[in-house]
Amino acid sequence: MGRVYTLVNQKGGVGKTTTAINLGAYLVQFGQRVLIVDIDPQANATSSLGVDKHTVKGGTYEALMGGAPAPALVLQNPRLKLAILPSSPSLAGAEVELVNELGREVKLRQVIAPLVDRYDYILIDCPPSLGMLTINGLVAAQDGVLIPVQCEYLALEGLGELTRTLQRVRSALYPALKVRGVILTMFDGRTHLSSDVVAEVQKYFSEQVFETIIPRSVRLAEAPSYGLPISAYAPDSNAAKSYESLARELLSGDGVAVKESAE
Questions:
Q1: Which of 4, 7, 79, 95 sits a CA distance of 20 to 30 A from 253?
Q2: Residues 172, 207: contact at Cβ < 8 Å?
Q3: Per-residue pLDDT tens digits for 4-13
């Protein structure tokens, strides 16, 4: 059975989608079958893999609302060997439409259930909010949540709110919900602030923080506009090496042997 991780942070711009795409791409390079599930109406993960969100005819909205089974909606990227259950702007309606649905919080978990045995890793990319879609993402996180945290002061302020949300979900919906790890992103070694944030997050989450730290990178910001992960766009960059290291660290922690790519 594959592992399902949800990437969550209610603060926008912390590298959540960037991490989902680039971590997924390196997991593929290490021999894993990977599916990205985009449950953000902004559909940035979808766009980052070169799919025009305005032309998506079936994706997470249709899957959640019963319009079609998820396996039939998965798109494959042959070049990257990465699969995605895409999103589109229509998914914004699901926040309202799910309210009156029976078992609304477990819809996504039910939707991806037929996919869990088909992939080694399923990475769910949540919207930057704590609404119904994110709650669905948390309940679907059978192996835990990955929390990207930007190395800036304001990023720290939202961690308390996120922690309380995780606790509420544990109490009311999914007692087994756990934090798989915190990923520090957008680190700028030229500033004392970034180092201070790293120290604070490590103190707050103790041993749950990944050792790999993702640097701030122009190349990383450019890659989505080409519909490519950093592994394909700038494989020799520091950001690429960091995401490669993060993938290795995740696999090691999961007890999965790393298979080097033949490429």
A1: 79
A2: no
A3: 999 999 888 8
